[in-house]
Design a protein that fits this description.
The chain has about 200 residues and is an all-alpha fold. It is built from 9 helices and no strands. Helix 3 (about 45-55) crosses helix 9 and helix 5 (about 90-100) packs across helix 8 (about 145-155).
Length: about 200
C-alpha cells in the first residue's frame, strides 16, 4: 500500500511537471491526464479517487495513510524536478501563490467540484471520459489536493489553504460516491420489486 500510494502521488507530481512545462494549457491538461489514466490502469490508490468509498467503508486510517503517501509522492516528484531544473523553482512558488491566493471559500468549492469530476473519471474507467474530466478540472481552475501538494511542498508555502482543498476534495468525493451508489441501489430495488411482481 505504501509504495503504491507513493507511486500514485509521484505520477500526479509528474503530471504537475508536464502541466507547468507546457506553454499551451490545453496540451498541458491533456498530458496531465496520462497520470490519472496510469493510476487507474495499474489500480494504484489515489486519495481523491477513493476518499468517498473509504469514508463509506469506515477505513479512515487507510484514507489518511493514502493521503499522506500520495502527498509524499507528489512532493518527491517536484523535489526531483527542482534538482533537474533549478531555474524553475521560482515558477513553482509563483504557481502556488496564484492557486492559493483566492481565499478559503473559493478553494473549498474548487476542491469539491474537482473531486466530483475525478470520482466520475475513476469510477467510469473509460479513457475518453478520464481525459475529458481531467482537462475539465484543470481548465476550469478546480483544485486537486494531490496535484496541489507538489506545488505546496515543493515550495513549502500555503499548507493551510492546501488543507482546505483536501477538505473540499473529501466533501466532493463523498457526495459523488453516495449520489452514484444511491442511484445504483434504487435501480436494484426497483428491479427486485418488478421481479417479485412478475
Amino acid at each position: 500500500m505504501i509504495t503504491n500510494s507513493i507511486l500514485a502521488g509521484m505520477l500526479i507530481g509528474i503530471g504537475d511537471i508536464a502541466l507547468m512545462s507546457c506553454d499551451n494549457k490545453y496540451v498541458g491538461a491533456l498530458l496531465f491526464a496520462v497520470a490519472l489514466m496510469s493510476i487507474i490502469y495499474f489500480e494504484l490508490p489515489l486519495f481523491t479517487g477513493r476518499v468517498g468509498s473509504m469514508i463509506h467503508n469506515g477505513t479512515y486510517l487507510f484514507c489518511f495513510f493514502v493521503l499522506f503517501f500520495n502527498t509524499l509522492g507528489a512532493a518527491l516528484s517536484v523535489w526531483l524536478y527542482k534538482l533537474m531544473a533549478p531555474d524553475n523553482i521560482d515558477k513553482i512558488t509563483a504557481i502556488a501563490t496564484y492557486k492559493f491566493g483566492r481565499g478559503y471559500i473559493a478553494l473549498f468549492v474548487a476542491g469539491i467540484l474537482c473531486n466530483v469530476l475525478i470520482h466520475i473519471a475513476v469510477s467510469s474507467k473509460h479513457s475518453i471520459l478520464v481525459v475529458m474530466c481531467v482537462m475539465a478540472f484543470i481548465l476550469c481552475g478546480f483544485e486537486h489536493s494531490i496535484a496541489d501538494a507538489g506545488y505546496v511542498f515543493g515550495s513549502w508555502t500555503y499548507v493551510l489553504p492546501w488543507l482546505t482543498v483536501v477538505v473540499g476534495n473529501t466533501v466532493g468525493g463523498i457526495f459523488t460516491f453516495y449520489f452514484l451508489h444511491d442511484e445504483d441501489n434504487e435501480d436494484d430495488e426497483i428491479e427486485e420489486e418488478l421481479e417479485q411482481d412478475v
